[in-house]
Amino acid sequence: MKNIVSAYISRKWWFRYIRTSSWFSFRYYWVNWLVFLSSVIVLCWLINKPIIQEGCNIDVIENSIVNINERLTHCCNCIDQQVPPNTPPIPPNTIQCDGNNGIKDNGNNLTPDPKFFEVGNHSGTMQLCYDNGNTYPDNIIVKHNGVVIKETGVVIGQSCIDIPYVYHPGDPTFVEVIVRPSTNPETFWKYTLGCPR
């Protein structure tokens, strides 16, 4: 026994420290649990503790918000002052879209020249009323800014159709109407174009 004690005493200090700690932890295990639970509680309290910043001046924050709003308003005014895009020139012999602008052709199967109608810079719905006769079908096409926005199709008879007109700044303020008549020389067609409403 004396040899065992002397051997234990002769070991390094760190070895004795580890052995003593292990024995203490084994003998008093509840202390380990108590320290662990206390650490968890303290950690949770620190996480949920509100952060209080001293020297926070509400007036300074409000003045900064007012300053930012003024700068944003000034920026929006700059956007309003931009030069609008150039509108394409109106072709010569442009017809007004008043609904009384009857365009017609009797007994001519040649493709007529396109007609241009001034319709303004307000979006709306135009009305095209046509009469293609009852024998030979014709097709009436309406274009805006080079894009077909409506066509009657190759039809006979008379009718009125609504045409959507959407204007964007810089777009032409006129539309182009093209007639594709029947190949029969006795074909008959006429139409009128109203203004956007």
Descriptive overview:
The chain is an alpha+beta fold and 197 residues long. It folds into two domains: 54 residues, no CATH class; 99 residues, Sandwich (Jelly Rolls). It is built from four helices and nine strands; from the N terminus they run ααααβββββββββ. The strands form two sheets. It has a five-stranded mixed β-sheet, with no helix packed on it. The protein has a four-stranded antiparallel β-sheet with strand order 2-9-4-7, with no helix packed on it. α2 crosses α3. The radius of gyration is 45 Å and the shape is elongated.
Offer a few descriptive terms.
197 residues, alpha+beta, Jelly Rolls, 5-stranded mixed β-sheet, 4-stranded antiparallel β-sheet, 34% helix, 25% strand, elongated
- Please list the strands of the largest sheet in the order they lie side by side: 1-3-8-5-6
The CATH topology name of the largest domain reads: Jelly Rolls
What is the alpha-carbon Rg in Å?
45 Å
Distance between the termini: 115 Å
Outline type: elongated
The helix tally amounts to: 4
- Report the order of strands and helices: HHHHEEEEEEEEE
Query: What is the annotated CATH architecture of the largest domain?
Result: Sandwich
Number of domains: 2
CATH superfamily of the largest domain: Galactose-binding domain-like
Largest sheet geometry: 5 strands, mixed
- Poorly predicted regions: none
